[in-house]
Amino acid sequence: MAWMYLLIAAVFEVAFALGTNATEGFTRLRPSVLTLLAAAGGIYTLSLALRTLDVGVAYTIWTGIGSIGTVVLSALIYKERITLPKVVSFGAIIAGAILLRLAG
């Protein structure tokens, strides 16, 4: 169940990152409220995952999924470019997460 909590936390992390862009500096009420709720949801579900998982592994995977998800969805939503260096970085994040999991 801890891994499910971690995955949910990562989804909240992506929503938080994308939502922060939509708040326009927290000047728009609705996106601001949704962004703050996403941040709280992510921290809460991460804390549930940390009941079982090591913090170093869980936090790294949480931020890794959040980073990759944010880049991919921002390309779809905000038309940001996915460049070769970004793809290589994705691979490094994924490889690092796998190695952390295998080491733990």
Automatic annotation (TrEMBL):
Keyword terms, alphabetized: Cell membrane, Membrane, Transmembrane, Transmembrane helix, Transport
Record localization: Cell membrane
Residue stretches spanning the membrane: 32-50, 57-78, 84-103
InterPro entries xrefs: EmrE-like (IPR037185), Small_drug/metabolite_transptr (IPR000390), Small_multidrug_res (IPR045324)
UniProt keyword Cell membrane present: yes
Record's signal peptide: none
Membrane topology: Multi-pass membrane protein
UniProt xrefs under SUPFAM superfamilies: Multidrug resistance efflux transporter EmrE
PANTHER family found in the cross-reference section: GUANIDINIUM EXPORTER (PTHR30561:SF0), SMR FAMILY PROTON-DEPENDENT DRUG EFFLUX TRANSPORTER SUGE (PTHR30561)
Recorded family membership: Belongs to the drug/metabolite transporter (DMT) superfamily. Small multidrug resistance (SMR) (TC 2.A.7.1) family.
UniProt name for this protein: Multidrug efflux SMR transporter
Organism lineage string: Bacteria, Bacillati, Actinomycetota, Actinomycetes, Catenulisporales
